[in-house]
Structures are given as structure tokens and as C-alpha cells.
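To: structure desk
From: M.T.
Subject: fold request, one chain
Message: Could you run this one when you get a chance? Sequence is below, nothing fancy, just the single chain.
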Amino acid sequence: MFISQTNMNIVRDMINRVNWSKQLVAIKGSRGVGKTTLMRQYIRKTYGENAGEALYCVMDSIYFSSNSLLALAEKFHLMGGKHLFLDEVHKYPTWSQEIKEIIDLYPNMKITFTGSSLIQILNADADLSRRVLSYTMEGLSFREFLQFYKGIQFPVYTLNEILQNADDICDKVNAVCRPQQMFEEYLRVGYYPFYDGDETEYYSRIENVINFIIEQELIQFCQVDAAYIRKLKAMLLFLAGNVPYEVNIAKLASYLELSKVTVLNYLNSMQKTELIHLLYTDNRSVSKMQKPDKIYIHNTNMLNSLGVNCPVGTLRECFVVNQLSVNHIVEYGNTTGDFKVDGKFTFEVGGERKSFDQIADVPNSYVLADSMEFPIGKKLPIWLVGMTY
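Reply: Done. C-alpha cells follow.
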């Protein structure tokens, strides 16, 4: 039933990037980004609606309260099954040990599973690290938003292509749409693939995602004491109201009535669950207990859903960090621009009147400006960085 009802109208490009033929594949990501839909679409596309070679299982199903995954795999194998799909595997306590047993017992059986961005494959009870091919799924990029919601398709452009060929890319985009108008819509409702036209309902669903991460995943995976749930939510709201937050850990610890060590641990956990981005001036020398230099909410839709009055500058910077962090190392620029990317590009973010004054003598420096449809020299429309995945 799940597979036959899966919508195939829009399929994300990631379906072609995953090597589904490998024996063991993991698709990790935050709640709500579309992992389940991607898996079901692949099953429907590859195996048809009723084929017996594939079996799709939701791992928090009541079936597994009295049946083991290992026993199910044995039955599936005896019936000629070839590919086992396990959704939200982290909800099954002994998933790692039993998956290892299954692939040892049935070397011709393939297993694809989805899980929280927090599941630790490398540190799992069974050693799966050498066998599993792992992918991370993100929310929609601006490019995917255009495809997903507007029916407009563009290829992925690398950052180098954007910086070298911004004029040509902008010509192609502007020939078929008004990108600035759609960019503003993306900042509000474009990141998660479950917007249906009702903005209030959309933000309510994002709030449910946030609550699930804090109330369940942080407790399950990060040893967060359940008694601190209210403090974690207070921390997120505090950060949302002060982003981009130039970090004063002592002030934040005092506000939350927690120790500085606890605050740093919680910040690191919140980054792993894709609630926030932590930026440092030098990623190479970051230690576990080093305080970040700046903090951003993970994406602009989440920021808007938290009900704070966001300055447009905050939304711009949040967007740039969110989009470029997928494939690049983003560092806080400190006194030379807003951000340094991959250790070689410097970006200053602002409105259409933003000048080069702060980065005038910095090599490989660019301005990413709002309210622009075409570049002017090295001042580029900010939405261009949303075409990189």
C-alpha cells in the first residue's frame, strides 16, 4: 500500500546518485527532508507496485514488538526476496547487529536503510563501517525548489562554475523565471518538501520536526537528560532571536542556568541534528570543547517557523551557510568578509547596494547580494549559491 500510493510526479536527483546496487546502503538525514519518499519512489520505479523481490519495512511497526528483523529476513529469503528496505532503522534497538548477521547469512541480499542524521554507523555495535555506503540527504536547495514546486529544471552548478560563469547562468535562469521573487518564497517555505500551500500548517509541521529532534533524538543518541528538554527549546529560541549569534558562552550558560561545558555539548548535539550551524574561524584546529565564533539556525524556513522577527540580513546569511555547507567547508570570515569557503573564497553578504569596502584587497573575494537578477562584476545574485546541489 505504501509503495502503490507513492507519488512519482517529482523525483529528486539523489535517486540517481545513490548506488542502490551495493549490498548495504545507508541514507541518513534530518527528519522531514524526504528520505522515506525517496526510498519508496525507488522501490516503485525499480520493482513495481507488487513485485516480491523487494520488501519495505517501517522499523517502528508493531510487528517488530514480537518479531525480529533477522527472522523476517529469513522468511523473505526463503520466498525469493532480494532487496530489503528498512525505514527509520534507528527505531529498532539491535539494528546494527542483526543487519550484520543478515548480510553474513545471505550474501546475495541487498539492504538499504534510512536513519536519523545521528545514527553512528562507524560506532555501531556491529562493525558495519567497512561494508556500508553512506549518503546524507538534505532539504531542498533553491534549485530543487524551482524543480519541485515550480516545474522549472536547471542542472547542478559547482561553486567554481558559478563564480566563473555567473553571467551565462543568470541569463539561462532569467530566460524562464523571475528568480528573485521565487527566492523570497524559498526563504519562507522552500526547504522542506512538504509545503502544500498553507504556510501556517507548514510551520506547524516544522515545529513538530524540531520537537521530535529535541524530545526524542537528542535523548536517544546524545545522552541528553530529559529534564533539560525545556532548556534546549529555550536555547533554540534564544539563538533564533539573536542570530547570527556572536557567541558568548558564559552569557548563554547564565541565561540557561547551565554550565559552560554542558552548553557546548548541547550546541554540538544540536548541530549534528541539523537544528543549527556552528561556524569557526578555522575548522582545522577546532577542538570538541572550543566555542564557535558564530551560530546560525539550520535553514531559513526553520528560522521563520520559530516566530522571531528576523532581519533580512540574518535570513541572507542563514541561506548562504545552509546551501554552501552541503558540499563545502564554510568558516566565519571574522574581519575579512562574512564567510570563507574551502579556505580560498571570501564572501560578503548583503543587499544590492553592498560595497566591496570590507574585502577590497582580499583575493578571490565576492559579494553575494540580494534583490539582483544579474551579476555586476564580482557582485553576484545571492540565489546563485542555491544552485550548487
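Reply (cont.): The longest helix spans residues 199-222. Let me know if you need anything else for the meeting.
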